């Protein structure tokens, strides 16, 4: 297990206290209403919990992705949906931090860290999810800018973001499929931008998810991130960062919350005249859940620490994302099982851990895609 510094322990404790105080009373109501309370987002920003990996000159804390993982883990321990909303508020800033111009960093990063603007990433389309290289949205050069046309699907913050980073085709004639793509910043108040909220989700119900239509949305050439034709590679570098806090940390926090619920329940309930915690089969389940959780946490922490040292390990990051998300589903499932019939009742506050965990295996790269990435890295390496 990674030994945290005193500063990291303080950050983790502060995040836990914030989540305990602010999330518990409102989480179930937000889940049922499919709404988010912006006051939580703004308070988190005021306390410096958002985009802590962003440099201080751009409004961040100048820390690392590891510290961001510690924060999101504690948020998800209480509620994965609220935690996802926090992640989503700065989702995409990693790409601007890596490839944006100085002007773009000065314009877009400080308002996000301050809780004034929300961002998002628009890559997935109705017919191009995991296969992002097959998108159809185009950005045609026109004078001193681009005209963007197309549709995106399952876009987080589609209806509430102030700007999105959009993956587009800028060079349709390029013989190399990956070389056709670019990323462009699109402010959502531009004419031609339309979004529709998706309702009835299984998971992270308070997080805004929608479909987006770009109907000849005009943006200036200054909104291009980096160079034309580099969009696919930028997106891959972005996911090597976003999959840690926006995948692994969400999953670990969710699993931790589910485990704690299970432990509390079996110590209170009785069966056949004995406390549930006294049965060996129950003890075995708790032991297995805790072991899976610690293995996943160690994998996540190792990947985040290496990244902050400048050692980007795509295979390790993919392992961390896949494994933590899979064990979150398993741990949450066992937590429900240990509750028996009470586990499916909302008032026992455990079923939502499984519902939230399920989507973690799907977004930001399905577990099947993660396994392909791991295999390609290993086979290419050896």
What's the short version?
The protein has 382 residues and is an alpha+beta fold. It is built from twelve helices and ten strands.
Provide structural commentary.
The model has no long low-confidence stretch (mean pLDDT 96). This protein has 3 domains: 6-113, Butyryl-Coa Dehydrogenase, subunit A, domain 1; 121-229, Beta Barrel (Butyryl-CoA Dehydrogenase, subunit A, domain 2), CATH 2.40.110.10; 233-381, Butyryl-CoA Dehydrogenase, subunit A, domain 3 (Up-down Bundle). The radius of gyration is 21 Å and the shape is globular. With 382 residues, the protein is of the alpha+beta class. The protein has 12 helices and 10 strands. A hairpin with a 2-residue loop joins strand 2 and strand 3.
Topology:
Layout: H1 6-22, H2 27-33, H3 38-46, H4 65-78, H5 80-90, H6 93-99, H7 102-113, E1 121-122, E2 138-142, E3 145-156, E4 163-169, E5 181-187, E6 193-197, E7 209-220, E8 224-225, H8 231-268, E9 270-271, E10 274-275, H9 280-308, H10 314-339, H11 351-360, H12 367-381
Parallel strand pairs: 1-4
Antiparallel strand pairs: 2-3, 3-7, 4-5, 5-8, 6-7, 9-10
Which properties best describe this structure?
single chain, 382 residues, alpha+beta, Butyryl-Coa Dehydrogenase, subunit A, domain 1, Butyryl-CoA Dehydrogenase, subunit A, domain 3, 3 domains, four-stranded mixed sheet, four-stranded antiparallel sheet
